[in-house]
Design brief:
Blueprint lengths: L4 E2 L2 E4 L3 H12 L4 E4 L6 H5 L32 H14 L4 E2 L4 E7 L2 E6 L2 E5 L1 E4 L6 E2 L13 E3 L14 E5 L3 H12 L4 E4 L9 E2 L2 E2 H7 L13 H5 L17 H7 L2 E3 L2 E5 L2 E4 L3 H25 L24 E3 L5 E6 L3 E2 L18 E2 L2 E2 L4 E3 L15 H18 L13
Parallel strand pairs: 1-7, 2-3, 2-8, 3-4, 8-23, 10-19, 11-12, 11-19, 12-15
Antiparallel strand pairs: 5-6, 6-7, 9-20, 13-14, 16-17, 17-18, 21-22
The structure holds flavin-adenine dinucleotide.
Length: 425
């Protein structure tokens, strides 16, 4: 165990957010260290399935001071490729990373904070929580009611369909992860039932360009947390139904239906081994279709406003989501028909080591756009933290810019920067 050390700021986590923040602090001459329990970009190497690719195109994979420079800007990086991109970034910005250093506690001290690790304690004035927003699967309380004999798997441990037992698979959740895993597992020959709640339908391409191109051009991804109504609701919106493949295919519920996946409503509970689905599938699909229509209307309007109609493909609208009439509301998990349940119901951060009174009654971190409700403490990487793009890799650019500026201001005048936050995290 090494002796205590001190620095101005401790960044916990050597993912892209921690490293981008390190670059921002270095640019400002702020002494700091990045503590990483494994090695940089660990989550992309250890927490993603074998066939994983980013759903964001290569041209969008950019960090402060670094853009994609390969020869496939419209392609999608695999897990190892994005891990390499981030590791190269750590070298390029000369980030002071201490690998294999697990942070086990963080407490207030007379000088600021003590960050306790399995390699000793760091004293500092500021702490940046960049340990990730997807450390743990977020599963409903009734997940424990999956009957014995049915395997329960979450996306952080899923690697490929071969690890699942034979028989049918119930995939719960139809955000990006759920639809991608449903597609892959179904292609492996296992019948898949997909439980669908509120979701975000998106075509891979529109009017000849990647949908992410238009999302950026119309400014949708730059929308700020303090400009939208109901930020808590916006933070709970599912990731878009997108997949990154060389052929740039769209993967929506109609594609899954065509492949033979059975769609069911939102899973509301499991009673006596029987999965109970809500009857709201039609409503959820209609809502997603309507929201997609509005997004495409906005894109069309932007194109016309900028006099670009002649240079791009004409507008088009996808067919409404097709649904089976009277789809069953129950699925008996005890018959042997279903061998596994995949909980693609989202992720949550693990901040259990933060020993500060900064959590609300639901256990959510209290922060105002990443400025945590404790002086000199910052948070990065959560959905819609400061902007709609905050949870995407390229979102780190603006978010670390803003938070590094706040941190520098705090160091210069600590008393003026103790904000009482108004927004829940
Ligand atoms: C399944 C999935 C798919 C995604 N796909 C995309 C995509 O296509 N495009 C996109 O832009 N974004 C995507 N994201 C979102 C986002 O880019 C990633 O979640 C990204 O990994 C977040 O980066 P981060 O630096 O905030 O956290 P992480 O990459 O999770 O990094 C946090 C680091 O902190 C370390 N750590 C955690 N706890 C401690 C501790 N106590 N002590 C020391 N170190 C610790 C971890 O080992 C890890 O290396 C995806 C997310 C998920 C979950």
């Amino acid at each position: 165990m090494r002796a205590d050390r001190s620095t101005t700021a401790v960044i916990v986590g050597g993912g892209h957010n921690g490293l981008a923040m390190s670059k921002r602090l270095s640019d400002r001459g702020i002494d700091h260290v990045v503590l990483e329990r494994d090695d940089v970009a660990s989550s992309w190497r250890t927490k993603r399935w074998d066939s994983f690719t980013l759903l964001t195109p290569n041209w969008q994979t950019r960090l402060p001071g670094r853009t994609y420079e390969g020869n496939d800007p419209d392609g999608f990086m695999t897990g190892p490729e994005i891990a390499r991109f981030i590791a190269e970034y750590a070298d390029a910005v000369d980030a002071p990373v201490q690998s294999n250093t697990n942070v086990t506690a963080m407490r207030a001290s007379s000088a600021g904070y003590d960050v306790v690790t399995d390699q000793g304690t760091w004293r500092c004035r500021c702490v940046v929580l960049a340990s990730g927003a997807s450390n743990l699967p977020s599963t409903p309380p009734f997940a424990a009611a999956v009957p014995e004999g049915v395997e329960a798997v979450n996306p952080l441990e899923y690697r490929n369909a071969d690890q699942l037992p034979g028989g049918g698979v119930l995939v719960v959740g139809a955000a990006a992860t759920g639809i991608q895993l449903a597609d892959e597992i179904h292609a492996s020959g296992r019948p898949v039932t997909l439980s669908v709640g509120e979701h975000v339908r998106m075509p891979r391409t529109y009017r000849g360009r990647d949908i992410q191109h238009w999302m950026e051009r119309i400014g949708r991804l730059d929308e700020r947390y303090d400009e939208v109504e109901e930020i808590l609701k916006a933070r709970g919106v599912a990731s878009p139904q997108l997949i990154g493949t060389p052929e740039r295919r769209t993967l929506d519920l109609n594609c899954l239906t065509d492949a033979g996946v059975q769609l069911r409503g939102r899973l509301g509970g499991i009673r006596d081994g029987v999965a109970l689905f809500s009857g709201g599938l039609g409503n959820h699909c209609r809502l997603a279709d309507q929201k997609l229509g509005r997004l495409l209307d906005d894109i069309d309007a932007w194109i016309t406003e900028h006099d670009l109609d002649d240079g791009v493909e004409p507008p088009m609208r996808a067919a409404a989501t097709r649904l089976e009439r009277n789809s069953p509301l129950t699925l008996d998990l005890k018959t042997g028909e279903i061998g596994a349940v995949v909980w693609a119901t989202g992720f949550r951060p693990d901040l259990s080591w933060v020993e500060l009174p900064v959590f609300d009654s639901s256990g959510r971190l209290r922060h105002d756009g990443g400025v945590v409700d404790a002086p000199g403490v910052y948070f990065l990487g959560a959905t819609f933290l400061r902007r709609r793009k905050s949870s995407f890799i390229h979102g780190a650019d603006d978010d670390t810019h803003d938070l590094a500026e706040h941190l520098a201001g705090y160091l210069a005048a600590p008393d003026q920067h103790f904000v009482t936050t108004q927004h829940g995290g």
